[in-house]
Amino acid sequence: MGNSSSMLTQYDIEEVQQHCNHTFSQQEIVALYQRFCQLDRNGIGFISSDEFLSVPEFAVNPLSQRLLRMLEGLNFKEFVAFLSAFSSRASLQQKVEFIFKVYDTDGNGKVAFHDMLDILRDLTGQFISEQQREQVLTRVLEEAGYNKDSFLVQSDFMKILGNSGLRMEVEVPVD
Amino acid sequence: MSKLKSSSSELDLDRPNIEDYLPSGSIQEPHGKLCLRDLLDISPTLTEAAGAIVDDSFTRCFKSIPPEPWNWNIYLFPLWCMGVLVRYLVLFPLRVIVLTVGWIIFLSCYIPVHFLLKGHDKLRKKLERCLVELICSFFVASWTGVVKYHGPRPSIRPKQVFVANHTSMIDFIILEQMTAFAVIMQKHPGWVGLLQSTILESVGSIWFNRSEAKDREIVARRLREHIEGADNNPLLIFPEGTCVNNHYTVMFKKGAFELGCTVCPVAIKYNKVFVDAFWNSRKQSFTMHLLQLMTSWAVVCDVWYLEPQNLKPGETPIEFAERVRDIISVRAGLKKVPWDGYLKYSRPSPKHRERKQQGFAESVLRHLEEI
């Protein structure tokens, strides 16, 4: 007689809220849980890559493969934590941290030239040659005071992206 | 040289431009001089991906939206229990009896007519048409179907085709009880398939196979042949290609709209108060779906036969399809969604992603020239 939030107890909701640093309200967490269950069609507790790709809007996104690597095997709590960077309550720091994590595929805290080149390749596809990509990237790096062999760390990202104008927000539909 | 490499994927003229519906500029186009920030800032793309994860218009079309539960308090709950008893123990057996009687009458008339009148085709066709309409009426009665038809009834004329929005296979039965349409359908397994190959074959139906690529041309040819024939039954097509939950419409396939004939739109809207008629083929088999209908109070719906439309001069078949979809959606109060129903079974083509990449690449190259 109730809706599916009866499968999520108040304790569960609070635990998830704690885990994502209160970036989502309890109602939003319930809504995200309904969405999670909707996507996790075979009910195994995490959403497989195939299930993510069955959302056409996600599948046409150029960074979908990268995000899939980060989303693999996440249970609901981790799923909410993943999305916390997109909440309106998330700080600029959290958003920049997320972007850094997308770049830093091996997770060593450093973003190298080839990491940035990889993402640029995802975003431009076959419409620009590899040589031109390297050219553009080297040029803008040098202008910003870095060079081809520099490693960027989180604080560099904060410096480059941290001024106002970074907009990365998603609204969770709450019925 | 900064010559842009052209896209190798050919332009797919099959679908309307999805970019018209989707938020534009997902990859930020840098203004002014290109700096490191412009290349590193992937936030628009990430936002779009996260937005799709949290909610997307495609999945919404196939969600069975449950009605608000109203039986949760102490007065209404016993009433609801009584209702369940009435539905399962009184209505359901009665309906099964009605349906059985209907089948007996139908088969005892149909089989003789089909075999004995082999030579007299015109009479046989006429009788078979009436009998098919009869059995469909029995089906509709077995769900206590209350169908209100609005508009002029379909007439048998050549060079016309009927299109309707699709919620369940019962759409076909509801329309068929008024007029014996020929229909184009996916061949189903089991008892449904048996009915398809025997009875529906006699009203002149056409089969297709979603998974076969070459199938489209064969089907297109057979469609054309059918509408040319003056005394073929009017053809009913569901251009969405799949069942949608009666709150939205997905994109219409252009096949029905490039036959060079008049298109008569039909809009169907079910009243959810009595039962949710959406057949979620991933969740239930058709038998279960029918049983669910037979144990509900009623199937109440409205059917509107709308004004026949023709291809306007200078209009492409795709624009024509969208225009008719608009007419049907407005009449039935459905929201339009820019997705192809077949994405239920397959992935979107890479050209959408490529278009976004192309836009960003072009702006980067422009700045490369300027630096």
Automatic annotation (TrEMBL), chain A:
Organism superkingdom? Eukaryota
Q: Which Pfam families match?
A: EF-hand_7
Q: Which InterPro entries match?
A: EF-hand-dom_pair (IPR011992), EF_Hand_1_Ca_BS (IPR018247), EF_hand_dom (IPR002048)
Task: Please name the SMART domains in this protein's record.
Answer: EFh
What would you give as a GO molecular function for this chain, any one?
calcium ion binding
The record, for PROSITE patterns, names: EF_HAND_1, EF_HAND_2
Q: Where is the EF-hand domain?
A: 91-126
Q: Which UniProt keywords apply?
A: Calcium
Keyword Transcription regulation found: no
- The name of this protein is EF-hand domain-containing protein
UniProtKB/TrEMBL annotation, chain B:
Question: SUPFAM superfamilies attached here?
Answer: Glycerol-3-phosphate (1)-acyltransferase (SSF69593)
Concerning its family, UniProt says: Belongs to the 1-acyl-sn-glycerol-3-phosphate acyltransferase family.
- Per UniProt, residues of the Phospholipid/glycerol acyltransferase domain are 160-271
- Using the UniProt annotation, give all residue ranges assigned to the region (Disordered): 1-24
Name listed for the protein in its UniProt record: Glycerol-3-phosphate acyltransferase 9-like
Major localization class: membrane
Organism, as annotated: Coffea arabica (Arabian coffee)
Gene Ontology CC entries for this record: endoplasmic reticulum; membrane
Organism phylogeny = Eukaryota, Viridiplantae, Streptophyta, Embryophyta, Tracheophyta
The answer on whether this UniProt entry bears the keyword Transit peptide reads no
